[in-house]
Amino acid sequence: MNNIKRVAWEIELKVKGNTLKYKQKLDEWQWLSKQEILRLQRTKLTALLQHAYVHVPYYRHLLLENGTVDESGNVHLDRFHHLPLLDKDTIKRHFDALKSDDLDSRSPFEESSGGSTGVPIKLLQDKQFMDWSSAVKLQDDEWTGMEMGCRRAYVWGSVRDTLVGRETVKTYLGRWMRNERWLNSFRMTQDRMKEFIHELNEFKPVQITAFAENLYDLAKFIEERGLYIYTPKAVLTSAGVLHPQMRETIQRVFKAPVFNRYGSREVGDIACECDHHHGLHLSAMTHYVEILNDKGQPVEPGEYGEIVITLLTNYTMPLIRYRIGDMGVMSDEECSCGRGMPLLKDVIGRTTDIFINKNGDRIDGRMFIRLLMSSAFINKFQVVQDRYDRIKIIVDPANKKLDHYQVYSEEIKRLVEDARTIMGGQCEVDFEFVDYIESTSSGKYRFTISMVH
Ligand SMILES: [Zn+2]
């Protein structure tokens, strides 16, 4: 039966577009040397800039003014890093000018950013982008050891993706063909988690693809209650940051290797781990990735900075030097698997995970995660900064029945003191217990949010 499904899926992909053709190219390219991959990437970047210069009003002027493209249409990549960055606000303001004048021939469609911070923005994407994105996803799956058509369970928190209440016959047919089971984790109640465990044990997926935070919650739930869970071949986490403690817990409970994937709705999947787990291989043929400091200068490998993406496949509305809103660290090491694609060492969160104190010092929000994740009485938490001199620690306790302020008064006092020290001293720290902490509208969970940017 699985073979029939795989064949049906392959036929559908062949009829619909170039996904399998692109996948074949990715298969070949992955084993090229890093130099050769970077050379090919420059060719793709040049082609995108030429297209933007000829067909996209917003860029025509900008590229010329900046010198990245000259009057004769020649591209000068040495000028590329001086192009202004593109942010969500600019996309909103220049939406029409960012459209390619030949977009009718590109099967465009509307998409919006995930909106894990702020209001989602509208974008145009096209068929070429979709086919490349699907090809990258197939390659990522293969790295985790999953073949096309194997059983896959999604523990997925985005209401839009899970199509709750809007499923059509086509949706169900597609899921059947791809052998998928969708578990909507937008709100993970205890009853929902019990249902998930039952479904996973019954469905026996080869791979679980999940929102990192949701699967971490599920893993904790299983472990605390000593429940049985089926062991898949691999777990692929996406959407949200996979902190080391989350990875360890998921791996321990599901007894399967965890592969971290980094992507977004606006630009597709950007990077994914291979089975050597030395970092995330950048999808260099579809994305050009830069990591910059707060002055817009590239940082050294090993240093963290803001991730800026140029999407090489979406000609309908080119995103060039796009501020995706995440922070990351590049690696200059080569992966022992032999693949030449450069490595992203880590994605460490949103740019708004950086806290700023009264003196203007920038504080890595992960310090709070390390502080609070090891407290046994805390089930979930969120640290919110609303002023330079005030943060709030919101806690969903593990045991809801206790008088927490009394039982844990000493520990709370210590956590508050440590949090204040992290903020550099003069800072008000409020501590509050709640019954439930909401995810963002995209379903992603935020451990830390600074609103003072
Ligand atoms: Zn590798």
From TrEMBL:
<dbReference type="InterPro" id="IPR053158">
    <property type="entry name" value="CapK_Type1_Caps_Biosynth"/>
</dbReference>
<dbReference type="GO" id="GO:0016874">
    <property type="term" value="F:ligase activity"/>
</dbReference>
<dbReference type="InterPro" id="IPR042099">
    <property type="entry name" value="ANL_N_sf"/>
</dbReference>
<keyword id="KW-0436">Ligase</keyword>
<protein>
    <submittedName>
        <fullName>Phenylacetate-CoA ligase</fullName>
    </submittedName>
</protein>
